[in-house]
């Protein structure tokens, strides 16, 4: 009986030792997993905080990703304040620059290098406007803003913009405000576009509606662009990848 009691005591101690070792091992594993998760979580927070802390070019809602060009376009207000076209943090056309005029104001940018190749007021003869638009090469980024009245476009001019992807060029009426951004040459209707329709009852200015405005990001890789604001959560980004 005496030896049996000793054996039971030893067996109990061995069982307690095994339980203690198993518990300690699991605790280390759990702690390692929690620490790893926290590190990744804080790393993601730091990345996102860094993105948000960067000043967005052209004042877009969120900074564009590296390798992307930011833009923002605002139409003219009535016939007094001209439109503003900003690309990559630089105002290309505006009243302050004294290079805007009634009709259509347009900027053409090299879609890969981001170099502005042309900025012009399109309010001359329809033949001059057609010649200018037809000379725009595939892959170029085209930024357009109306001022005062864009209704002077002929059907041929409207058809060219429609061919670029515009869904509203054919419906623009007297004193409507219109802004449009697109990378030309894509076999797609991917574009940024907004129109504010003139309405005597709801016009913000006497005889004119409120301004129209769009913003976004174009990738320097031809065939990619972001619609709307860029968000830090990749799952929420509206990303369209197109090839041609």
How would you summarize what this structure contains?
InterPro entries: FAM3, ILEI/PANDER_dom. With 244 residues, this protein is an alpha+beta fold. It is built from three helices and eleven strands; from the N terminus they run H-E-E-E-E-E-H-E-H-E-E-E-E-E.
Strand content: 25-35%
Q: Structural class, from secondary structure content? A: alpha+beta
Q: What is the string of helix and strand elements?
A: HEEEEEHEHEEEEE
Instruction: State Rg.
Output: 30 Å
Main sheet attributes: strand count, strand direction, barrel closure: 6 strands, antiparallel
Helix content: 25-40%
| N-C termini distance | 91 Å
Mean pLDDT: 75
Q: Low-confidence spans: pLDDT under 50, at least 5 residues?
A: 18-53, 227-244
How many separate structural domains?
Answer: 2
Order of adjacent strands in the largest pleated sheet: 3-2-1-9-10-11
Number of strands: 11
Overall 3D form: globular
With helices defined by DSSP (H or I, 4 residues minimum), what is the helix count? 3
Features:
single chain; 244 residues; alpha+beta; 6-stranded antiparallel β-sheet; 5-stranded antiparallel β-sheet; 3 helices; globular
Topology:
Layout: H1 2-53, E1 68-74, E2 84-87, E3 90-93, E4 103-109, E5 116-122, H2 126-134, E6 141-147, H3 155-164, E7 177-183, E8 192-196, E9 213-219, E10 224-227, E11 239-241
Antiparallel strand pairs: 1-2, 1-9, 2-3, 4-5, 4-6, 6-7, 7-8, 9-10, 10-11
């Amino acid at each position: 009986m005496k030896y049996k009691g000793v054996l039971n005591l030893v067996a109990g101690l061995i069982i307690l030792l095994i339980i203690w070792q198993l518990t300690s091992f699991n605790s280390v594993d759990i702690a390692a997993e929690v620490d790893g998760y926290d590190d990744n979580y804080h790393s993601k927070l730091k990345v996102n905080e860094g993105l948000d802390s960067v000043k967005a070019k052209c004042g877009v809602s969120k900074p564009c990703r590296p390798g992307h060009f930011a833009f923002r376009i605002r139409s003219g207000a009535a016939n007094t304040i001209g439109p503003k076209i900003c690309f990559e943090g630089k105002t290309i056309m505006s009243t302050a620059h004294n290079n805007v005029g009634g009709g259509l104001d347009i900027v053409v940018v090299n879609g890969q290098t981001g170099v502005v190749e042309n900025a012009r007021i399109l309010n001359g003869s329809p033949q001059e406007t057609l010649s200018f638009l037809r000379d725009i090469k595939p892959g170029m980024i085209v930024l357009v803003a109306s001022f005062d009245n864009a209704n002077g476009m002929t059907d041929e001019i409207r058809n060219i913009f429609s061919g670029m992807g515009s869904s509203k060029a054919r419906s623009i009426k007297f004193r409507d405000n219109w802004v449009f951004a697109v990378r030309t040459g894509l076999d797609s209707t991917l574009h940024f576009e907004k129109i504010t329709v003139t309405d005597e009852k709801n016009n913000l200015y006497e005889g004119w509606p409120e301004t129209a405005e769009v913003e976004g990001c174009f990738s320097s890789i031809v065939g990619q662009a972001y619609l709307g604001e860029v968000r830090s959560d990749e799952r929420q980004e509206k990303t369209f990848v197109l090839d041609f």
